[in-house]
Target: Pyridoxal phosphate homeostasis protein
Amino acid sequence: MDIEARLADIKERIATTAEKAGRKAADVTLVAVSKTFDGDAIQPVIDCGQRVFGENRVQEAQGKWPALKGKTPDIELHLIGPLQSNKAADAVALFDVIESVDREKIARVLADECGKQGKALRFYVQVNTGLEPQKAGLDPRETAAFVKLCRDELKLTVEGLMCIPPADENPGPHFALLAKLARECDVEKLSMGMSGDFETAIEFGATSVRVGSALFGTR
Ligand SMILES: *Cc1c(COP(=O)(O)O)cnc(C)c1O
Model:
């Protein structure tokens, strides 16, 4: 399959799964995760009409996205990887959505930068549903208070929650937990599901799925 066929196949699987779950295909956004792939690999996917992309490193994204966005201004770029404070200004300048907000310090720096740059980004709070010590994300029990702080005090637009379940576990319970937390925190969107489990994530209510290798190939 070429990349056009792979994109069509993934979109078809998203639509079929959404409809089986009693949801609309249009209610699930495909975030095409283009990390490690260069502009020449990404451009054909843009040419097929894909507009939402995810990257996990600020510096890598800076090397390719200004040119790609220059040609196609309606692209929406999501940061899905860990963010350090010293990269926050660059991240606010380049990205439209940051999905990896997981601690007060970075939330404060992002709020400052949005003010300085006059930009209104959208944010997701990342939750470490498996409480894995090596993984980014908030303790599920701290999520509601953190969302409240981001919204009420820092005036960040928190529109959703994001998680990456433990690689060696059935992801279903993690997706269910994220959906429950979203209801408790009154956030609308759920970013969950990757190449291997995006259909399961849609069954549990994902509003966006982050698909990399199934679309671009193995990294
Ligand atoms: C790389 C990555 C993905 C995509 O993973 P695939 O298994 O290649 O689809 C999704 N989410 C995050 C946070 C990632 O870093």
